Amino acid sequence: MSDLFRNNFITYPKALFRTTIVIINNIYCIPTYVLWMTLLLPVKSYKPDLYYRIEGLFFHWLLSVVAMWSWTAGYDIVELGDDIAPTRKKDVRTMVIANHQSTADVPLMMASFTTKPDILPNIMWIMERLFKFTNFGIVSLIHQDFFISSGKNVRDLSIKKLMEHIEESFIPRMRNWMVLFPEGGFLRKRKEVSQQYALKNNLPLMNHVSLPRVGALKAIFSVLPPHETQTTSQQGNNNSCKQSTNNGTVTQDNGEADPAATPTATETRHYLDYILDITIAYPNGKPLDILNIIHGIRLPCPTYFLYRLYHTSQLPKTEDGLTKWLYERWHEKEKILDDFYKNGNFSIPVAMPPIVVQQDMLRLVIINLFFITSTYVHLQMFYMLADYCNRFYVLGFA
Fold first, then answer.
1. Which pLDDT belongs to residue 185?
2. Is this prediction's pTM over 0.90?
């Protein structure tokens, strides 16, 4: 009993302290981000590229604060699988697809990506519409993330708006990462419906993932088609028959220009180069959630991110083929997760051995100091403005 009392004496005050810190983080980080972006609106009018570079940097810093919550609670992220270095090259576009189990998936993904400085400033999250009404919703609106609505009645309209958003926001801002959860919801909410659909359509029953929805993926490919052109180094794995020259002209194996694939002077083509498939595996199949990350009561544990990288030239070209390919990936996830939960390891060979993601504590301290200082400056500005307005009012009626 004394040990239990001692543990509770430490655990619950610590959880209260962490929760208070998270609340304070939200108070001085989110409004400061919004105010900076508002004050910089004149820059957006004349130099939109500069505005969104600054916004991307602030967005990255803000998500680094989110990453600090899980890291300081001892919820490590272990990355393994394919090397994702090819996706980090300039002008390469990548779509991330992942299984969706809980509210911890996104903040843990943020914690993984924050250590890769070229991802978060250039990312677009595709998320449930209800997220717009959370405290972080205003940040996502400014960052131009996309809020998708669920339900049969609005599905077609949502897909159409997603295509428009990619054309009007994602491409003009030269972003090259997007995140999609094809399952369309958390496993606990989708599992029963998914299994019923599988039974009706003679598909394998799955317990660790739910069947993915293909509509958003097809819509993205309709705007950003697969990039059939690869560099010589990329051809080693899939024997692509075309390659790109330095000036952007596509050539065939005989070295002659391929007129069907060469952009005209007035045409700029936009492609999707890679799909990064992440299988998220929680210890013993028990997902963390956002409350765990905030209060940190659950014991420290690792969460595994298994990376499988596919160049889009390897994907099927037909809609039926793409549907089959996505279903195969999710059936593969089911087997991988089943083996992991039973045996504690992954059953497939991996090119990159397990690596624990490490955050830079000094960087996190500096980022927090920036937001705290910015908050102080903004409060002083408001105080001076209020004082000026008050004096003007007094003088006006004197």
1. 83
2. no
